[in-house]
TrEMBL record:
Signal peptide: none
Record-linked Gene3D superfamilies: Ribonucleotide Reductase, subunit A
Any single Gene Ontology cellular-component annotation: membrane
Name the UniProt record assigns to this protein: YHS domain-containing protein
Gene Ontology biological process terms in this record: copper ion homeostasis
Spans through the membrane: 139-158, 170-191, 203-226
Keywords: Membrane, Translocase, Transmembrane, Transmembrane helix
Residue intervals of the TRASH domain: 5-43
GO molecular-function terms, A-Z: copper ion binding; oxidoreductase activity; P-type divalent copper transporter activity
Length: 256
């Protein structure tokens, strides 16, 4: 049976104890004669110590026996190693910053608002959230690809009429090629949350993002591949306008 030396707070096996003492009918076990002597002189000092204080001191070193120093085993000469009592690691719980009633045992997505769950307690050695790393990568790539789409659309306003140098049909295909990875890859996490909000009937901001991006991109794809199906009222200067840049901007802005 494992017991704690009341003096040095070492975790030891009762059968391996170097010394024992009986005080008020209770047997106490010690890792060394030195600890026993200190205990026998004034037992109350060691028995009245707060449990929380003793637990913070409980760093034990072990080979085949426990040592108060941090050096070597007196039997085999091997270096002593630190041991941590079983169950000392705290269980990490994850919760939603917007809905604290949501508590999970692992990271994931809030079923109500779709936000990523965060740990309830923060440790000094906590690693960066892998979802944050992934979203940061998606944002920067999407942002870079969105810039030329904005320049194409806002060209006349900023005195850069790029469409004058390229046929309108060619520009639509170029916009489609650039916007597709932004929407389908950069916006994938938003579409996942969009579908979850629909299936769970918990409409949230991801519902709006998914609808906005999906409608703008879907309409533009149809206008690019099948412009003949649109009535004249949908045309501007004889061409069906596309909104690839709107879909890309929503994705980039939402990932910022």
């Amino acid at each position: 049976m494992k017991v704690i030396d009341p003096v040095c707070k070492m975790l030891i096996e009762d059968k391996d104890a170097a010394e024992t003492s009986i005080y008020k009918g209770i047997t106490y076990y010690f890792c060394s004669k030195h600890c026993k002597e200190k205990f026998d002189k004034n037992p109350e000092i060691y028995l009245t110590e707060e449990p929380s204080t003793s637990l913070t001191k409980e760093i034990t070193f072990k080979s085949s026996i426990h040592r108060e120093d941090h050096k070597h085993c007196p039997k085999c000469g091997h270096a002593s190693k630190p041991i941590t009592p079983a169950g000392s690691q705290a269980k990490v719980e994850w919760t939603c910053p917007m809905h604290p009633e949501i508590i999970r045992d692992a990271p994931g997505i809030c079923p109500i608002c779709g936000m990523a769950l965060e740990p309830k307690t923060v440790s000094v050695d906590e690693k960066e959230n892998p979802e944050l790393i992934d979203m940061r990568r998606r944002f920067w790539i999407s942002f870079v690809l969105t810039i030329p789409l904005i320049l194409v659309t806002m060209g006349p306003v900023i005195s850069m009429p790029l469409k004058k140098f390229f046929p309108h049909e060619l520009m639509k295909w170029l916009e489609f090629i650039v916007a597709t990875p932004v929407v389908l890859w950069g916006g994938l996490p938003f579409f996942v949350r969009f579908w979850q909000s629909i299936s769970s009937r918990n409409l949230n901001m991801f519902t709006l993002i998914g609808l906005g991006v999906g409608v703008a991109y879907g309409y533009s794809v149809v206008a690019t591949f099948m412009p003949e199906i649109f009535p004249p009222s949908f045309r501007k200067n004889g061409e069906v306008p596309v909104y690839f840049e709107a879909a890309a901007v929503i994705v980039s802005w939402s990932g910022a």
